[in-house]
Amino acid sequence: MDPEIAKTQEERKKMEQQLASLTSLTFDRDLYGGVDREAYETSIPATDDEEPDMGLNEVALKLASYTAPKSVLKEMPRGGDGSEETDGFRKPSRIIDREDDYRRRRLDRIISPERHDPFSAGEKTPDPSVRTYSDVMKEESLKKQKEELLRKIANKKKEEEEARAEKEEKPASSVPKRSNRWDQSKEDDGKVVKKAKTGSDWDLPDATPGIGRWDATPTPGRIGDATPGAGRRNRWDETPTPGRVVDSDATPVGGVTPGATPAGVAWDATPKGMVTPTPKRQKSRWDETPASMESATPALGAVTPSLGGVTPGPTPLGALDMATPTPNSLAMRGAITPEQYNLLRWEKDIEERNRPLTDEELDAMFPQEGYKILEPPASYVPIRTPARKLLATPTPMGTPLYSIPDENRGQQFDLGQEPPAGLPFMKPEDYQYFGALLNEEDEEELSPEEQKERKIMKLLLKVKNGTPPQRKTALRQLTDKAREFGAGPLFNRILPLLMQPTLEDQERHLLVKVIDRVLYKLDELVRPYVHKILVVIEPLLIDEDYYARVEGREIISNLSKAAGLATMIAAMRPDIDNIDEYVRNTTARAFSVVASALGIPALLPFLKAVCQSKKSWQARHTGIKIVQQIAILIGCAVLPHLRSLVEIIEHGLNDENQKVRTITALSLAALAEAAAPYGIESFDSVLKPLWKGIRSHRGKVLAAFLKAIGFIIPLMDAMYANYYTKEVMFILIREFQSPDEEMKKIVLKVVKQCVSTEGVEAEYIRSDILPEFFRNFWVRRMALDRRNYRQLVETTVEIADKVGVKDIAGRIVEDLKDESEPYRRMVMETIEKVVTNMGASDIDARLEELLIDGILYAFQEQTSDDANVMLNGFGAVVNSLGQRVKPYLPQICGTIKWRLNNKSAKVRQQAADLISRIAVVMKQCQEEQLMGHLGVVLYEYLGEEYPEVLGSILGALKAIVNVIGMTKMTPPIKDLLPRLTPILKNRHEKVQENCIDLVGRIADRGAEFVPAREWMRICFELLEMLKAHKKGIRRATVNTFGYIAKAIGPQDVLATLLNNLKVQERQNRVCTTVAIAIVAETCSPFTVLPALMNEYRVPELNVQNGVLKSLSFLFEYIGEMGKDYIYAVTPLLEDALMDRDLVHRQTAASAVKHMALGVAGLGCEDALVHLLNYVWPNIFETSPHVINAVTEAIEGMRVALGAAVVLNYCLQGLFHPARKVREVYWKIYNSLYIGAQDALVAAYPILEDEQENVYSRPELMMFV
Question: How far apart are CA 825 and CA 811, in angstroms?
Answer without folding.
Answer: 15
